[in-house]
Amino acid sequence: MASFKSTKIPIYPKLGEKVTPDTLYWKNYKAPVQIKEFGAVTSIDFSSLAPHNYAVTASTRIHIYGPFSTEPVKTFTRFKDTAYSGKFRSDGQLLVAGCEDSMVRLFDVSGKVALRVFKGHTKGVHVTDFTSDCYHILTGSDDYTCRLWDIPNSTELTSYKEHTDYIRCGITSKLNRDIFITGSYDHTLRMFDARVEKSVMTMDHSQPVESVLLYPSEGLLVSAGGRYVKVWDLLKGGQPLVSLKNHHKTVTCLSLSSNGQRLLSASLDRHVKIYNTTNYKVVHNFDYAASILSLALAPDDESIVVGMTNGVLSIKHRKSPEEKREMAGKQRMQPVYRIFVKGRNYVPKKDDFLVSKPVKSHLAKYDKQLKKFNISKALDTALESWRRNRKPEITVAVMKELDRRGTLKNALAGRDEQNLSQLLNFLIGNVVDPRFTPVLVTATEMILDIYQAVVGQSSVVDRQLVRLQELVEREVDYQQDLLEVLGMLDTLFAASLPRKEVPCPGSSRSNGLAEGSLGAPGPQLKAA
Amino acid sequence: MVAHAEIRVVHLSGSKINFREPVITNDSRFLLCASGESVKVYSSSSEECVHDLQGHTDLVSGIVRNPSNHLQVYSCSADGTVRLWDFTDGILIKTFIIGYPIYSIYVSENHGGVVFVVVPMANDKSSELFQLVAVHLPLSGDQEVEARELSAVLCDVSPSGAASFGRKGEYIAAVKGLQLEVFFFKKQKSHRFFLKSGNKKGAKNAFTCVSCHPKEDCIATGHEDGKIRLWRNFNQKKEYTYSTLHWHHGAVNTLQFTPEGTNLLSGGIESVLVQWHYTQENQKDFLPRLGGAITHIAVSPDGSLFCTSHSDNKITIIQSCVKVSAIIQGLVKGEGVRTDLTIDPRSKALVLNGKPGHLQFYSLHRDKLLYNLDIVQQEYIHEEGLDQFEVVKAAFDTRGDWLATVEERTQKGSELEINLKLWVYDEQTQSFMLNTTVIAPHEDQITAMCFSPSPETTMLVTISFDGHFKAWLLADHSDTKEGASWSCDFVGGYHHLKPGCCCFSADGSLLAVGFQEVVTVWSPSWELLTTLSQPPGAIRDLCFGRLSCSKYLLGTSTKNQLCCWNLLTCSLEWSTPVDVSLLQADPLSENMAAFCSQSGCSDLFVFKPGEPRPLYSQKALCTGKVQRAVFAPRDQMLESCEEHAQWLNRSQLYFFTQHMDLMTFSTKTEEDRLLASSKRLMVDDSVAVTPFYLLLGKHRQHQEALTNPMAERIQLPQGSIAIKELLYTPAHVLPSASFLCSMFVRSLLISSSSASEEKEPVEEEMESEEEDSEGEAELRDARQDLGGSAAWGPGEELGAPALTKAQERELRRVKHFDHSWLSSVLEC
């Protein structure tokens, strides 16, 4: 004797992105804190020192924020013109910044006045950085030159004039004090060695370079310019490794997550994309309100700071594990579950004698009614308001089951005004849902058949019927539009496919091309 | 004698076991049921088949217990004989020749020496009228007796199961149509009661079944409209009364009183066993969801066991209406095999659609249903005229890890519902688990599907009447929480033609899809490589050659063409005008089997695509078209050296005829082996043959054999001179130990002189077989001469052999049978 088989509630596939460990990791941030700056935020730099303050360069100021403060802990305002590229030294004591007025200023983090002012550039300085030995400063300027300065003497050590356009990005090696790389609007990346007169390596990005980044191992270089992010293998003499085109506007900023496993790129298209650095696939995506100019990650990815063209600084902090635990704890406190689980998770010991008890299968309410062939009651239970609203798939599954049993018409018949309007409400809400349409269209037709004699007796029902009619008409128009678009796409794809003659010795017919899968809508799929 | 490899077409058992009411023996230990041409004895506790009582030459149409001997049963058959069997030993005791085809049999304790059988009214078989006759069984010592003493009891009865003996055998009640007829033996008079053909509510009053109360004068009748009527006071023609019980919504198929008459059991299409309390008629118990529609109910004489036969070829044994204790399931054939026959690569079981919404796994070697896999997973509603989901396609991948099934439901006036389901084999539960369900994978019926045999990818291709073929890939989402699931990878088509068949090459590097007249060949990267066509006629079947013939692609078309294309040159290699209804490739060799239908008969050709002459051909295999066929790999390879039987060495060919009979080809060597093994398996018959019993029983026998002769033989080895010599001779003069070992061991063995006597009858039997097969060999030689000249092509007909196959078989069976009987008598 087989047991009653309960109604199968289909599990519909979740549309949209799949839940991967990456999405879980990158979604585990709190709602962003937004701070309004005076102008476009051009640069953000984290201090490597313990509290991990970060310098935000916007307009003519540089603000230093603490990790959790929304007010700046320190402000540098002694700039005559727009400041650029505020950078901390690796010990976190000194801060250097370029300026549109061609001067480079060096500040003590605790002081207010510039310790040193380096003069020599003839145009605005957009790039500044400390070398790894902490005694030199690299600068790149719109006068096409990049220079090295000595901090103690405040003198210019060398100047390279190889770029033929503005230098807008540069980075110094963290392993070698003499090596640095600059990127310019002349589409090139150049690697310099301070001990040598000329550049030692040149790479062609073929777009104005906006940002460069070195991997911690410094074997790979990442450059961003135009819509492309390119990765170069420095150990192979600057051979291009990958070219990524995932943004649809200029990529402005690059960053690595703290363990070097993920690469982040920010762009004027208001997106931050996160790549897996092993296969360079996009694993996650952040959206922001405005075009992004600067991006930085705190050590250990504790926070993501993004600066935008409209002067808004957005800071996202990682959720702390305590909070998570708190939320989980709340769920565990529910007494129902405790009672339910009581004694069930007992694991029998070795010598225990196990008395097996027949497992009683619990049937849902509607299944109990279906088992007894109470079809109207089964439909009533399935139409209970919470089930109807929260889990329409159950209601639809019961309707489908009734239809399979050939008794849907009987179950739908004989309802009073209130019941009928409930039913019609449900239909209006779900009949155009592609998951439910096949079943609900049958049900709708049956209802119209059954109740056509009483149309006009109730204003409520009549109004709902009119609404239903409008809804269906709208849906039909919509589907027609979609089909037209599909037809257009098919034509386009067919035209774009290369025509190829197929050898056909055995066939007397002329051969056509294979029709691609491109136009066909994918069937509904569900994982069991 | 040289062992000749004669190929015969054998009827594989797996026939209906629900044809007639089963019989439970007095001690409730065995259950007997008619199964094709034999009677099967099942153990009611272990569900195993203990005996197969063979002897009838036509369909067995009834079994009853011998009322005077509880160890014997009568069986009747359409071959016109009633046979008396001893079912515990599986011995035929007597054969009574009646001379007319018998449709059912009834006995009563109060009518000793008489059986009541239903035979056609006129002598010819085609007659629609049947009569119930009493046959006086002559008391004679002969094994075969002609029983000519017939006396008609009732005329115009229904041929099956619609008669019942009343209290103490005083009367017999029979129903047919709208009439109940009661015949009183004492008065030699019959009363007839009629019902109106239909009441106002359209109720159908026709009788379907009848059962008489064993203790009281009460007759219960079942009706088409689900009513049960209890007739009383029927010995008066006028003042009879009846009361009505109504629960069934469909026709009442069967009724049975329990032996004490306290309960009445009824069953119908609802598959619910209803137990009515005889004294309180409004009280009833139910046993629901037993499977298919209930066709027969039988009760054991002590009333402790019930058994119900179901329309899905199943017998359920129920312990006093509370618990199902055993299920005997035969091969479910239903209305037709919708799925192709497939072989499960793991269990080597034949897989086809079974009971509604299920796939059945049928072990061909053990002739037993292994299990049913619920595909549809929905409550089956037993109602006539309801559109149900049916499993229409099933396919396994090469390793048996994945199973794909297609179920569909056609509905009047609404669209087709199709689900594609993919099942993964779960090692822990040893069964298939649902992995992915694709709702509406195609817009129209799926005509074929196959898995790619290449080991790198797990890919399924489905083709459908909507003009597309789709490739489904297993996408591994190891980075997400949900496991691997299937998704559509490619949709292809060709000029909006309807595809009819598809086939992967053996290595999975090519996919051929037949679009009506055109065969398209696709690469794994979904490029259309080439098209082949041989108009006119749409492509019906496609098959890639294997192993050395893998460069060939074979196709059959509706316009009686069998074509072979060479894939290297993309040209037609050869073609021949035959109407091939079915083309099957042997997965283990290059061989192909083509079933051709010709003038109402089916012929078989087995050939290699690369060779011009067929390896084997058999004309007039069976009447009608061969519906389905499959090559099943053998457990052990056969060592047949005969050229025309070599194609059966690795795998065996099974096929379904038009009448849904499962047939196969067997060779002589194989039959010999089977015979030998069946002799080896002779065990104590009173105990059901379970694998456990075989193990333990053998062990016990062995032990017994060891303990008994121990006393007289224990001193034997020590006394032997060889041992003494061995023990007393200095080691350095002895030959090497390896040389002595075998002799030493042999000296310890028990001499076989005592066992030789027991062997004698067996040897005798072997001899008779050899004679038998010699006779056959001559026959076959004659046929070979004829068959040798039969070239590849139609037109040439085989000369009819001197004896038909059936006759041959009959001859052989009679010989075997006689002998075993004689030997059993000798033993007594």
Automatic annotation (TrEMBL), chain A:
One example of a Gene Ontology biological process annotation: rRNA processing
WD repeat ranges per the UniProt record: 118-159, 244-285
Cellular localisation: Nucleus, Nucleolus
Keywords: Nucleus, Repeat, rRNA processing, WD repeat
Region (Disordered): 504-528
CDD domains the record matches: WD40
Ranges for domain U3 small nucleolar RNA-associated protein 15 C-terminal: 345-492
Classification via SUPFAM superfamilies: WD40 repeat-like
GO CC aspect terms: nucleolus
Quaternary structure (record): Part of the small subunit (SSU) processome, composed of more than 70 proteins and the RNA chaperone small nucleolar RNA (snoRNA) U3. May be a component of the proposed t-UTP subcomplex of the ribosomal small subunit (SSU) processome.
Function according to Swiss-Prot or TrEMBL: Ribosome biogenesis factor. Involved in nucleolar processing of pre-18S ribosomal RNA. Required for optimal pre-ribosomal RNA transcription by RNA polymerase I. Part of the small subunit (SSU) processome, first precursor of the small eukaryotic ribosomal subunit. During the assembly of the SSU processome in the nucleolus, many ribosome biogenesis factors, an RNA chaperone and ribosomal proteins associate with the nascent pre-rRNA and work in concert to generate RNA folding, modifications, rearrangements and cleavage as well as targeted degradation of pre-ribosomal RNA by the RNA exosome.
Protein name: U3 small nucleolar RNA-associated protein 15 homolog
UniProtKB/TrEMBL annotation, chain B:
Bias (Acidic residues): 760-776
Alphabetical UniProt keywords: Nucleus, Repeat, Ribosome biogenesis, rRNA processing, Transcription, WD repeat
Gene3D superfamilies: YVTN repeat-like/Quinoprotein amine dehydrogenase
Signal peptide extent: none
Region of interest (Disordered), ranges: 755-801
Chain ranges of the WD repeat-containing protein 75 second beta-propeller domain: 341-660
Major place of residence: nucleus
Compartment list: Nucleus, Nucleolus
Any one annotated GO CC term: small-subunit processome
Name assigned to this protein: WD repeat domain 75
Annotated source species: Oncorhynchus kisutch (Coho salmon)
Species lineage: Eukaryota, Metazoa, Chordata, Craniata, Vertebrata
Gene expressing this chain: WDR75
